[in-house]
Design brief:
Blueprint (H helix, E strand, L loop, with lengths): L13 H18 L26 E8 L7 H21 L20 H8 L2 H4 L8 E18 L2 E17 L3 E13 L4 E14 L19
Length: 225
């Protein structure tokens, strides 16, 4: 519904603006190599086709710091979410289960810069299904959301923070509900976005074993003595 009144612009809180600015500045320094070029996301070998994605996050641009046209905002959120989904697919959802922990490698972090891949590789149990992969038979996505805070300059995106929440169920010996949430710090590349930092938490809720459930108390059969 259109209206003749002008709606006030949403202002980003100083805390969000500061976080975005700091993320972009630190990411630029972290990504810069000897030639001043940011690290490119690791490319998957052509001999290993990427499985059809089964993660498709609901993408939403929540905050914008700087000048950026409204007509392009959803496209930015969608493009950021595609990079996030590639990681979620490779690290948690895709592939055959059960499988060995050793099958989780640098390829589990597509879209991450080289330095960030090394950091994530030291936290495989958090950043992927590496630890539980031998104990599960399948993964089913319950929900996945990506909310984006964008930092822009002169109508161009210069950085973003993707706040993610992935919920999925596992079956097999380790039947559970897994929740991955947190944030990814990202910068634009020539053709996409690259992850240069992360702050991720993971929660596991194991399904109750029916054999461990307490037995029902017998019904009263008479008056108290």
């Amino acid at each position: 519904m259109t209206s003749s009144s002008t709606k006030p612009r949403r202002r980003i809180s100083p805390r969000v603006a500061t976080a975005l600015t700091a993320a972009v500045l630190s990411g630029t320094l972290a990504l810069a190599g000897c030639g001043g070029e940011p690290d490119k996301p690791a490319a998957s070998p052509s001999s290993s086709p990427v499985p059809a994605p089964s993660v498709k996050s609901a993408a939403k641009l929540v905050h914008v710091q700087g000048k950026f046209p409204r007509s392009r905002r959803q496209a930015v959120a969608t493009n950021v979410a595609k990079v996030v989904d590639r990681w979620l697919q490779a690290a948690y959802v895709g592939g055959d289960y059960p499988r060995a922990t050793s099958t989780f490698t640098a390829k589990s972090f597509p879209g991450f810069s080289k330095g960030t891949i090394a950091q994530a590789g030291k936290q495989m149990s958090l950043m992927s299904n590496a630890t539980i992969a031998p104990q599960i038979d399948a993964v089913e996505v319950v929900s996945s959301d990506v909310h984006v805070d964008l930092l822009a300059n002169n109508n161009y995106p210069v950085g973003a923070v993707a706040r993610i929440r992935l919920v999925y169920d596992t079956t097999g010996d380790r039947e559970s509900r897994q929740t991955v949430r947190g944030s990814l710090d990202m910068v634009p590349t020539e053709t996409s976005w690259a992850v240069f930092g992360f702050n991720i938490t993971r929660e596991e809720k194991l399904a109750q074993d029916p054999s461990s459930a307490p037995s029902a108390s017998p019904s009263p059969s008479g008056d108290e003595s």
